[in-house]
Design goal:
This is Phosphorylase. By secondary structure, the chain is α/β, with parallel strands linked by helices. It has 8 helices and 11 strands. It is about 35% helix and about 20% strand. The relative contact order is 0.20.
Amino acid sequence: MTRIGVVVALPAECRTLTRRQPCRGEPFAIGDTLRVCLSGSGPDNAAKAAHRLAQVGCNGLVSWGCAGALRAHLASGDLILPAEIVCTDGTVWPAHPAWHRETVRYAEALPCKVYSGRMTASEGIVHGRDSKQMLAAATAADAVDMESGAVIRTAAVLGVPALVIRAVADEAGMAIPRSVLDALDPHGNTRLPKLFANLVRRPSDVPALLRLAVAFKAASATLRAMAPHLHAPGKF
């Protein structure tokens, strides 16, 4: 039986797949063919979650969630199905070709723009316009996240197929406000009391925060539209 394991970094991203409140690091089932593991943010957490999903019998891995755009043509809510991922050490890992083609065909029927090219991995949040431009120039990638490189590399080590499904949240010209960055805990979750306190000290961050919230809503809608594809996996 094909059993897909999905690595999701953040609870808000996980809610695009299920209303359940998962425990971090513990895989749980959504139907017969799908297992989800809430990893927390970052490559180390993602790799641990990928290994854990393999331990419970998953024979295909997906990195699921949001990404930051590195190119101006990408808008919030666009879907990124990269054919390859550039890891932080410069190595390039491909998505499983047949699975990737099948997923692109499914996505092209959705009411969003779909891009299939290259993503890159990052050890931390790439939050500024200049940083995004530099990363795009260095990697020739269209978008970035922190977990997909670890998931696809772990899949290669385990000998199982892998796929990356990401929706654009912050656009290339959008900077994540300092009030948000300072309110994140080590797992990437937002500490709301800290965020509110930061905004009191930096009220000029409020418009950028509102734009980021709208962007995340668009990305979440795209992921929810894509979610049924995970429940009907083809053969690798």
